[in-house]
Structure formats: C-alpha cells, structure tokens
Amino acid sequence: xxENLIDIKKNNKTTIxxxxxxxxxxxxxRRKTIFKRKQIIIAPTHIYSxxxxxxxxxxxxxxxxxxxxxxxxxxxxxxxxxxxxxxxxNIFNKFKKFENxxxxxxxxxxxxxxSSMILLTDISGTAYTYSFLTNNPVIFYIRNKKIIxxxxxxxxxxxxxxxxxxxKIFNKNDIINTVNELLKNKLKYKVKIKKLKHRRIKYLDQTxxxxxxxxxKLENK
Length: 221
Hints:
The protein has 221 residues and is of the alpha/beta class. The protein has twelve helices and six strands. The radius of gyration is 19 Å and the shape is globular. The chain starts with a helix and ends with a helix.
C-alpha cells in the first residue's frame, strides 16, 4: 500500500521501515487482572465508509434478539466518528432501560474488551485489535456476500484470516447460534489467534525499541 502511495520507483530516496503495532503494544503493556463476564461487544465500522458492508440497518434487531433471548450483557461501541450520530442516539434511547445493555462511547475500551467473551462486527479493523489483545474469537456479520468478490476483498488477509480468529456469517438470525458455537471452541480459537498474532505482527511488544533503533541508524548515517 505504502509503496504504491509513495511510488518508490520514482522516488528512490524513500525507505519504508516497519515498526510493529503501536496501539497493541501499548494495550498489552497494561496487563491487569480483569474477570471475564458474559459480555459481548458489538463494534461496527464507520457506518458511512463502505455502506454495502455496514451492519447499521440490522443493529436494533440484533441487540433486541440478544436482550430478549439470552442473558449476555451487550456493549454497543460505535466507531468514534459515529458517537453522536442520530442512529446510535436512537438505539441508546430505545435500549437504555435494559440492565444488560451498555452504550460505550469512552475513549478507552480496554476494560470492556478484556472483560468480554466475544466481539461482533462487520468489517471494522478493531476486530483484529480485539482478538490479538484478548485472544477471544470474533463474529463478522457480512450483510452483502457478493460484494466481497466484486471488490476483490476476498484476496485480502483481513478476509483470509477470518477463519483463524472466528467466523463470518451472512444472516443476522445466525448470530446467537454462532456465539454459542465459538464459545464452545474458545480454547481452539485461542491457540489459533496466538499463532496468527505472532505470524502477522513483526516486532510484537518491541515497537518502542524498534523506533529508537531506526532513529539511531538514521542519525548515524
């Protein structure tokens, strides 16, 4: 992506240095004991980014099904850019009377993520941050199955790796059963997630040292 953006062939003085995953390293350093609860995070991507993938039109039904048919605590965490969007305000007003519903617009999601069991999203990047931080599985609700191939998204690692950290589904009515299925196989997914994390992220937990190392090399040139 960056090679295409900068066009290194035309600008051969440009060098790309890989640092690692800054945010994940920061969160992993915060390790503290947080007890798991029967809590599910719902974290859709920006609802106006790629509309064909957005789960926004199904959110009310999904939350309603969870609250009426299960004992899970549901934490709805919108994309930061959507916190004040009318859609989410309406959802909050509709479900705020339920004890098992929480609307999370905090800047810090660490405690909620760490105390949860599973995350439900559409195509948010937080899916992998969540999974690599907690070692918990993720459900990807893909509303439009055909568009994956149309956009050639099926060739991206984001979609290829889904099977290793969770499962993608195409019908909102399958969500609760999928939650139960993934939780039954939680230990198996934990092993897969740990392996994928170390395979995909260079310099895991070494971002700060890596940055200083690169700066020192550049200064000594």
